[in-house]
Amino acid sequence: MNCNIMVVKIGARREDSPKVQEVLSRFGCSIKVRLGLHETHEVCSDEGILILQLCGEKEEMEKLEEALNKMEKVQAKMVVLE
Q1: Beta-strand relationship, 48-55 and 3-10
Q2: What is the CATH number of the domain that holds 36?
Q3: How many domains does the chain divide into?
Q4: For residue 76, what are the CA distances in angstroms to 9, 41, 42?
Q5: Which residue has the higher pLDDT, 1 or 54?
Q6: pLDDT per position as a tens digit, 28-78
Q7: pTM for the whole thing?
Q8: Facing residues of 54 across strands?
Q9: Which of 30, 33, 49, 65 is most exposed, with minimal Cβ within 10 Å?
Q10: Which residues have CB under 8 Å from 54's CB, separation 6+?
């Protein structure tokens, strides 16, 4: 089974989280691990980072990356460690 890491930066977390969640749900069978991070020390930051471990077909991972990158304030990048 092919597994990779994807890092997703959400620039407007409060605004885009529902849309990001909708995309992640569509590709849920490919997501093995999901870790969400955002700054909460003084003020709840509007920027967030998701780290995903994806397993399955490379084409599905690429479709997920493409769907996330279609959003204006979201950047997704596959990280392949061999």
Answers
A1: antiparallel
A2: 3.30.70.1150
A3: 1
A4: 6, 25, 27
A5: 54
A6: 999 999 999 876 666 677 788 999 999 999 999 999 999 999 999 999 999
A7: 0.87
A8: 4, 31
A9: 33
A10: 3, 4, 5, 6, 30, 31, 32, 60, 61, 64
- Asked if 80 and 54 count as a contact pair (C-beta separation under 8 A), the reply is no
Residue 65 exposed, middle or buried by CB count within 10 Å (0-12, 13-18, 19+)? buried
Q: Which 3 state secondary structure label does DSSP give 11?
A: coil
What are the structure tokens assigned to 60, written together?
A: 């599905």
- pLDDT at res. 54: 96
The token pair that represents 69 in the structure block: 């990158």
Q: What is the pLDDT of residue 40?
A: 62
